[in-house]
């Protein structure tokens, strides 16, 4: 079967982007092809895409040598569009209707797996944190965020953007800001620039107890980032905890390197 034209699919399924779902569709075939290339080697990999919308990026992934592409979509209109596309793809496209926040993505496709997605803006950060909890299950993640969020993910200590998301992500992954996209690249144009971040999970991944400890630690430290650490971390041990880790209690969260956060997390882990 011939693959339906993207414009026809959008019209047929009434796929105007919905603000309530954080949708901003990327339809430019040159840009979607570039994102698929930025994901690195896809031959023999099983790719998972969250929020495909009408399927602009999905088509680029299907044009790659990926073994399969699994799409997760909550919008019934887009699910119908994906089902129509599935019929032309010889079994390589799997369509999952559901909320990605409630799904175990690693259970949807066999290894080796990669996630490649233009994430819905309103749930992008929670999605990332949920995937970091099981980072060892993925060979890589190529994800589009609002530029501000992408810069937080990649920020260095002592920079204004450095925060909880920076620490959690860089603790578990090698991060690269790959590509910036202007609002005009999307339909409808968002009010902000977007950026694609590449994440490659590190070989050494923490157990669930240590990950939970790091979540508690970074939430406390950056929840009151203007405070000195002795005050911000008081619920977790404050001065005594910092003394045990050999970290000055007068410092603030944004000055700590990821390795120093790990040192503290190990002291409060079960």
Report on the architecture of this protein.
The chain is an alpha/beta fold and 270 residues long. The chain folds into two domains: 196 residues, Vaccinia Virus protein VP39 (Rossmann fold, 3-Layer(aba) Sandwich), CATH 3.40.50.150; 61 residues, Helicase, Ruva Protein, domain 3 (Orthogonal Bundle). Helices cover 37% and strands 19% of the residues. It has a seven-stranded mixed β-sheet with strand order 4-3-2-5-6-9-7. The protein has a two-stranded antiparallel sheet with strand order 1-8. The chain is elongated, with a radius of gyration of 20 Å. The model has no long low-confidence stretch (mean pLDDT 95).
Q: Uncertain runs with pLDDT below 50, 5 residues or more?
A: none
Whole-number count of domains: 2
Mean pLDDT: 95
Give a count of the beta strands, DSSP E runs of length 2 or more: 9
Global shape: elongated
Strands of the largest sheet, in order across it?
Answer: 4-3-2-5-6-9-7
- The CATH topology of the largest domain corresponds to Rossmann fold
Oligomer: single chain
Name the structural class: alpha/beta
Largest sheet: 7 strands, mixed
Secondary structure layout plus pairing:
Blueprint: H1 6-12, E1 25-26, H2 29-38, E2 46-50, H3 56-62, E3 68-73, H4 76-86, E4 93-97, E5 113-118, H5 124-132, E6 140-146, H6 147-154, H7 164-172, E7 173-181, E8 186-187, E9 194-201, H8 208-223, H9 229-232, H10 238-245, H11 258-268
Parallel strand pairs: 2-3, 2-5, 3-4, 5-6
Antiparallel strand pairs: 1-8, 6-9, 7-9
Helix pairs in contact: 2-3, 5-7, 7-11, 8-11, 10-11
